[in-house]
């Protein structure tokens, strides 16, 4: 359990949020031209990083807006918060 | 066997005040090269090494474990064993494991305390009733024992359940698998470790894998905290850390690792002599031989390797437990912990070779791997030894995420998560 600083509402408990998994997975521009391997890569394959991860969250029991987090998955420490469409503030 | 356990060895050792029992397995240091290296010294990894040595006559095997054997999810689960899965592929896999459990203490000459006390799954709404009846029929067609119980029969089988129609999610019925039950989790790891060690397998503890060395599209060995070890075949059984090992080999897996929690109460006299699970309200409970109530909570929503979960998950489970079992309202909880489970998109495991020659993965067991331990080890050993899957794990290959031929057990089985 940890506190998330929603870019729209401020600090709230993690239980108010829904995790949306790995961020910056780009939807294919030409879905009809993808091979089965490319579809599998897009739909199912995940980095599942132990360490610094870029991920999407939704403030499901609040403003219901999506945003991005940078979080260390080895200890749940949040490094940065940034809005959808913005570049990650750290590499 | 050097130290065969029996009534006679017990009596003999009583004369020396039980001070001269030999070590069950030796603490090995790595050799330069092995025929097969198993990464991960949990139940599944040790079982794999055991069956590789026993059934496939490969003796030069190492099991490398970053902590101590059985210290990961093998020591963190709620020890439930059942095989009442909906789909044919899953039924085949889990019932194979259950059949091995039935003879495991004799096979290993080690008491794994397998107790066929039955597992009951409750229905709380009309859809649950339909799903559970459907699953009962599917189970019986696959030769798996299953019966459907009405509310009175549920109450008769486990009298402490509150079957009042006035509760928020009343009990409308349930299923029972009588061959299902529990086992002692540590004993499974220790029994397989002892059996494998006896056949010459090196069990190397406190040895963390730091890298996987590749030569083109095949493996050459592993870098560890105890140096480089050469091998042509690597079996990865690293549970929540499978993706970490995969990344070292330049491979991506369809897994997400999340904390799964469990908790136990203070020990009390026998009160519940079976395992009761409820999928709809997420509550399951059994009682250990020490007398503690063993309660499994759910997974957290987010990826984490922190081995601790959120408090609200435990709170939700205990709310449901208290409504179903008002008698537990004054129990105090003794310990709570988390384990990191690797979950596949279809909630079924992967027991498979990969696109890299000599690299095999046994992962994705998610929230329910303990029950499969013997079967998982047996089938993974077969896959590694023959470089081909056994017919029972053919459906659980990694290519199903490309072909779309998923084994979708999410909510379809009696799963509690």
Protein described:
Chain A has 91 residues and is mainly beta. Chain A has one domain (3-83): Folate-binding fold (2-Layer Sandwich), CATH 3.30.2270. Chain A contains one helix and six strands, in the order E-E-E-H-E-E-E. Chain A has one helix at 36-43, and strands at 3-6, 10-13, 18-22, 52-58, 66-72, 77-83. In chain A, the strands form two sheets. In chain A, strands 3-4-5-6 form a four-stranded antiparallel beta sheet, with no helix packed on it. A two-stranded antiparallel sheet of chain A has the order 1-2. In chain A, a hairpin with a 3-residue loop joins strand 1 and strand 2 (10-13). The longest helix of chain A has 8 residues, at 36-43. Chain A is globular. The mean pLDDT of chain A is 95. Chain B is globular, with a radius of gyration of 21 Å. The model of chain B has no long low-confidence stretch (mean pLDDT 95). In chain B, helix 2 crosses helix 10. By secondary structure, chain B is α/β, with parallel strands linked by helices. In chain B, the strands form four sheets. An eight-stranded mixed beta sheet of chain B has the order 5-6-4-14-15-16-13-17. Chain B has a six-stranded mixed beta sheet with strand order 8-2-1-12-19-18. Chain B has a three-stranded antiparallel beta sheet with strand order 9-10-11, with no helix packed on it. In chain B, a hairpin with a 4-residue loop joins strand 14 (275-278) and strand 15 (283-287). Chain B is built from eleven helices and 19 strands. Chain B has helices spanning 7-14, 43-55, 88-102, 104-108, 126-141, 151-157, 185-198, 242-248, 311-324, 373-386, 400-403; strands at residues 36-39, 61-64, 80-81, 119-123, 147-150, 173-177, 181-182, 202-204, 209-215, 218-224, 227-230, 234-236, 256-265, 275-278, 283-287, 293-299, 333-343, 350-353, 359-363.
């Amino acid at each position: 359990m940890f506190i998330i600083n929603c870019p729209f509402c401020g600090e709230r408990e993690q239980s108010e949020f829904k995790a949306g998994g790995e961020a910056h997975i780009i939807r294919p521009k030409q879905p009809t031209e993808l091979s089965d391997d490319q579809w599998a890569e897009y739909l199912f394959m995940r980095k599942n990083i132990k360490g610094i991860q870029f991920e999407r969250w939704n403030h499901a029991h609040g403003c219901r807006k999506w945003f991005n987090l940078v979080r260390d998955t080895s200890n749940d420490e949040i490094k940065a918060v940034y809005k959808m469409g913005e570049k990650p503030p750290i590499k | 066997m050097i130290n065969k356990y029996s009534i006679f060895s017990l009596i003999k050792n009583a004369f020396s005040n039980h001070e001269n029992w030999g070590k069950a397995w030796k603490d090995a240091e790595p050799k330069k090269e092995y025929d097969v290296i198993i990464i991960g010294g949990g139940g599944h990894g040790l079982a794999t090494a055991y069956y590789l040595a026993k059934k496939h006559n490969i003796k030069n095997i190492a099991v490398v474990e970053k902590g101590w054997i059985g210290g990961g999810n093998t020591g963190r689960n709620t020890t439930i064993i059942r095989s009442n899965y909906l789909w044919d592929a899953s039924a085949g896999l889990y019932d194979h494991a259950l059949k091995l459990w039935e003879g495991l203490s004799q096979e290993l000459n080690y008491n794994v305390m397998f107790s066929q006390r039955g597992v009951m799954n409750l229905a709380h709404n009309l859809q649950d009733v339909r799903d559970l009846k459907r699953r009962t029929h599917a189970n019986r067609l696959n030769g798996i024992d299953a019966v459907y119980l009405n509310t009175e029969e549920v109450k008769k089988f486990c009298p402490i359940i509150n079957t009042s129609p006035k509760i928020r999610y009343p009990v409308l019925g349930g299923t029972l698998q009588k061959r299902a039950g529990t086992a002692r989790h540590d004993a499974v790891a220790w029994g397989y470790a002892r059996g494998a060690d006896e056949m010459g397998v090196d069990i190397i503890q406190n040895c963390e894998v730091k890298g996987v060395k590749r030569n083109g599209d095949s493996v050459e060995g592993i870098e560890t905290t105890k140096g480089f070890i050469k091998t042509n075949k690597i079996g990865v059984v690293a549970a929540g850390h499978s993706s970490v090992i995969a990344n070292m080999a330049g491979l991506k897996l369809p897994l997400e690792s999340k904390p799964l929690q469990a908790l136990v109460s203070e020990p009390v006299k026998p009160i519940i002599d079976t395992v009761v699970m409820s999928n709809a309200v997420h509550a399951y409970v059994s009682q250990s031989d020490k007398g503690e109530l063993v309660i499994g909570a759910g997974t957290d929503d987010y990826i984490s390797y922190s081995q601790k979960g959120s408090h609200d998950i435990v709170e939700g489970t205990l709310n449901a437990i208290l409504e179903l079992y008002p008698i537990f309202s004054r129990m105090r909880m003794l310990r709570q912990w988390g384990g990191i489970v690797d979950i596949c998109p279809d909630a079924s495991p992967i027991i498979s070779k990969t696109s890299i020659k000599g690299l095999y993965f046994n992962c994705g067991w998610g929230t329910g791997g303990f029950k499969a331990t013997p079967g998982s080890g047996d089938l993974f050993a077969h896959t590694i030894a023959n470089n081909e899957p056994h017919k029972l794990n053919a459906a659980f290959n990694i290519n199903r995420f490309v072909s779309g031929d998923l084994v979708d057990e999410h909510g379809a089985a009696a799963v509690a998560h």
